Amino acid sequence: MNEGVNNEPWRICYRQLAPKLLLCARQWVISPADAEDVVQNAFIKFWKRQPDARPEHYPLLFTTLRTTALDLRRSQERRTRRESDPSAQLLTEDASFFDSTIEQREDAAQIEAALKKLPSEQREVLVLRIWGELTLAQIAETLGVSINTVASRHRYGLEALRKTLKPCIHE
Amino acid sequence: MNDSNFETSLRAFRPSTPPAAIEARLAAGLSNPEPSPTKKDREPVSIRFEQAREPFLVRCFHNLGWAIAGAASAVAVIALCPQKPAPEKRETPQTSQTSDARMAAPLERRNLSSTPLASAESSATPVSFVPIPASLPVGSGETNDFQTVETTRELISTEEEGQVLYRNGNTPMRQVRSRYREHHSWTNPRTGARVDIEIPREDVFLKPISLQ
What we know:
B: about 210 residues
């Protein structure tokens, strides 16, 4: 019985995608807690619309995730402007982007720092491409921009990341 | 290291796993009784909505019903409207009958009267004038309706506009344009109210050209 519950299709899908979704969500919202909320809301929204989702539908989940994240961010920005809430900016440095081993920990921190230095447009493309494992066409659809724009953002982002990480990524 | 290898080396760093509490919240969220959208709801918005097709005869009777209703309402309106007395005919000058009158007749028939071209050349004088009666006979059957008192037409000008070809260019015609001013008056014998209307009018006559 319990095994049947654990093998529900949505659980399989979620377990497969959850880390990628969380990492992507963290590129769009301020705090890790908000990113978790975004993942949860986006997944529920997606699964209710696609109860028979297959892997080819997964890019749509990233689109839903981004829409949900941007909605949340806009409402937060409105609230921040309204209430001048200084705590909103303090929530940024909570959790790491990556689950790293002890050996990887330093490199992971450098990658995270390098990612945070990138322009947000390049960063979201890189995260969707490298860790979201989407194709450039799927990213273009997710972001609502042309594939050429995605390709150039990917190229420039990768170049910038490579320059920053040259000492720590071993060839 | 090329881009692909660089991406692969970055991919070796696994994104952090979300807390298990999210999965529990998802289970609760996905099992809540809010009805999930049906397949019909998930169809594209730009779907073409087909109107329910009724049998042909039903549609005919449906349209016929509307037509009958419209006709009945038109008849009712006509029946309820007060009938105005027909405008009194006034004396008109005799139209010169020429051999080409047959051609001009359809155009002239639309006018209250036709004016001969010869007289049209003259100055703008009233063709006819019916004086307003000093007092209208008021009988016992007097109503509150307006009655026609005067209808005149004043010829303002007549212009010869040259030759035109009529009926696929086979018949040469002379085009004559006449401008009139019509004057209509109604009065209410009971209240003495009077309504005057002046209407500009323009007629175009086509006169066949006799080549003999």
